[in-house]
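Summary of Year 1 activities. Much of the first year was spent building the evaluation harness for sequence design. The harness presents a backbone, in tokenized form, and records the residue chosen at every position. We chose the following record to illustrate the format because it has been used consistently in internal testing since the harness was completed.
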């Protein structure tokens, strides 16, 4: 499984060094959590911060928008340096148009589903996304417990993607650590977002290496 560290629980006073730490851990990309205080009960950062981080890192920027109206800032995130723009199917954005807009800007496009949303909510858009993110916590905060009961949903998405012969990647986000990553891989996840477990790890590189050994089922 690939690893996308979420910098949400890192030291925000030293973002450049934290990006270097992520790179040195051997991770495959960086997960940037954008929160608007409306869609989720928390605020983080937006395009100006990502724009300043862009020259500090050559890593792939996996941008997760937890926003009520992500469609209003797609150009701004693309210009700031996002490589993949991911927004929620529960947002108020026109879903298909927004996915097309992201692709027209030359970026990869993805959709996220919250725990209470069924897999079928993203079925109409499967041929328009490069990746799907299945939340394994309620979005808004790092450091929460992994919801193993999301695994059937992950399996359902994997089966539908395979049935249609698509190459959509599946990502999991929330509570991923040494113990939970194998459960997600077995259910069909390709990419693990790892936040607090990585920043609190005594050996981050060892954790990334361990997750890299996990084979995605499906
Ligand atoms: C939650 C965010 C996650 C989160 C991951 O709303 O989307 O990316 O910060 O953090 P951990 O790995 O600590 O659950
Ligand atoms: Zn996230």
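For this record, the design step produced the sequence shown next.
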């Amino acid at each position: 499984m690939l690893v996308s560290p979420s910098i949400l629980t890192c030291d925000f006073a030293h973002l450049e060094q934290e990006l270097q730490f992520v790179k040195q851990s051997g991770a495959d990309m960086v997960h940037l959590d954008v929160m608007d205080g409306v869609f989720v009960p928390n605020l983080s950062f937006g395009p100006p911060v990502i724009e300043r981080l862009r020259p500090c890192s050559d890593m792939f920027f996996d941008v997760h928008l937890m926003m009520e109206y992500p469609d209003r800032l797609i150009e701004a995130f693309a210009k700031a340096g996002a490589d993949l723009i991911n927004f929620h199917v529960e947002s108020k954005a026109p879903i298909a148009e927004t996915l097309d807009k992201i692709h027209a800007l030359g970026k990869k496009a993805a959709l996220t589903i919250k725990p209470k949303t069924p897999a079928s909510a993203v079925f109409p858009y499967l041929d328009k996304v490069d990746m799907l993110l299945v939340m394994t916590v309620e979005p808004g905060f790092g450091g929460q417990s992994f919801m193993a009961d999301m695994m059937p949903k992950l399996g359902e998405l994997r089966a539908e993607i395979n049935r249609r012969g698509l190459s959509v990647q599946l990502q999991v986000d929330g509570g991923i650590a040494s113990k939970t990553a194998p459960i997600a891989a077995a259910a069909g996840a390709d990419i693990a977002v790892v936040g607090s477990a990585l920043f609190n790890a005594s050996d981050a590189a060892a954790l990334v290496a361990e997750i890299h050994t996990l084979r995605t089922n499906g």
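The chain has a mean pLDDT of 98. Quantitative recovery figures across the full test set are reported in Table 2.
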